[in-house]
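Thread title: Can someone regenerate the structure for this chain?

I was given the following input by a collaborator and told the matching structure tokens would be attached. They weren't. Posting the sequence so someone can regenerate them.
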Amino acid sequence: MSTLHAIILGLVQGLTEFLPVSSSGHLALVPWLFGWDHFGGDDVLENAFDVALHLGTLMGSIVYLRSDVIRYGTAGMGWLKKRGPLSGDARVAWLLAATAVPTGILGLLVVAVTDDLGDRTWLVAVSLIVFGLVLYLADRRPSDRGLNDIRLRDALLLGVAQGLAFQPGVSRSGVTLTVARGVGIEREAATRLVFLMSLPVIAGAGLVKASDLVVPAGWWGPFIWGTLAAAVSGWFAVHWMLRFVARVGFGGFAVYRVAVGVGVLVLLASSFR
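Best answer:
Regenerated them for you:
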């Protein structure tokens, strides 16, 4: 793999991990579109590179969200020491933790019973279209709830949605934003919630795959550059979503998803790839 290709894939991963457009879908479509075959069927090597990119994304997002991580982490651990009524930041912290439970259970089940679905290009395209339309409809619903208004059933529903977003093209952030908007959480709060929910999931997914993490000789350069590109682009994606997109809505992403999905289906029908 060239350094340029590693950087491109790192940028794609970092940006699309937090935008509701499916990072796994884009990481499957970009090599398919350009005819890249970097791994030659070596699933272990491909898995290791995927872990490296997710590590970069995790680093970038934690740096940006560090004040929230410290705020809710401190409040949640403080409640463990003092106990008493669960309210305020401590309540939000433990509800965030609750979202990881169904996500983790479903994630382990998916890993155990399914194969890699990213090579089903038509299914990636259909998922982009269908879940883009669902996001658009959910985003049009009226909303006035903030982070402190989240209930346990909301947290569990969000966790289930996150755990079921294993098909490339669905988008983990997209489907959780859809659910958050569907239950009436306003855009900026929903966006921040989805980002904070994602941190333990990205870290956990990396740990599950870490047993296969082997970097062959000659691959350290692409791994390092890809990881750095994912970290920087992940930081910018979080910044952009929280500062701008959350205020104007997710309709543009829905249009993009449908356009990409339709474009891929057209290319498939034309035997371009």
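The chain has one domain: 3-269.
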